[in-house]
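Sequence in, structure out. Go.
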Amino acid sequence: MSRDFGLCLWTFGDISFEEKCLIAKKIGVDGVEVQGNLNQDPTELSSILKKMNLKLLSVTPDNVDISSTDDKIRENAVQYFLDLLSWAEKAGAARICLHGDVGKYAGCGNSIKDWELLVDSSKKIMDKAELLQIDVVYEVLNRYENHQIVTCAEALALIEAVGNPNLYVLLDAYHMNIEETNPAHALIQCGSKLGIYHVADSNRQGVGNGHADIQAQINALHTVNYNGPIIMEMVAEGPNPYTPVKGPDYLEVIVDYYKNSLELLKKWDCKQE
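Output:
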């Protein structure tokens, strides 16, 4: 199996896109997940990636609320994703991520209404995604980041409700460590609907720095014949989970995480072939 290994560029903090790509290239990954910054020229982004010989594995979105009960907020959020799909097409992306508003850990008080709004917004986004033939992966977060879709089972229920073949699931080892009884089993449960696998240890640091059984999760990927990318998403130790900047040496720390983790992940992945 030819597997792409990547990393999330947002974890490098506030440095230029080209600097981030240079670091990723030195780490040795095949590609990257980029931020869906609509103010960045997508053709320029594509050009930089080609120059660095890096693949565009995925696009992570800005933080917007597609299930808000405020019509204006929700409509603007949906429009952002519609614009992001056009942006992603110009950048040459095969897939984008979709998720709830990070930091919104409670809904309106009516879970049925919250669910209906989420499904309706997702359908509108998926109509355009299908037209452009771009896959969308719904990222399963945890209860401390969003109140909706925190398990694989919930994500599969959303896929069924939306009913669009281009909608898949993004499972993340860090989030699964909080919400899933057995993360490896969740990956198997997801099966052919697994679109992306994000990996970090239980503390969102490098593989081996926490207590998650990442090797079992890699084995599970092979059980379901997942041939998509393995994308690392790690940050240095420190407070505030919403910023990668954890001190003056944060960049050196996460580069070390990525290098060591990449070596381990490739070793475990190859053992299963």
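Check: The chain has a mean pLDDT of 96. The longest strand covers residues 55-60.
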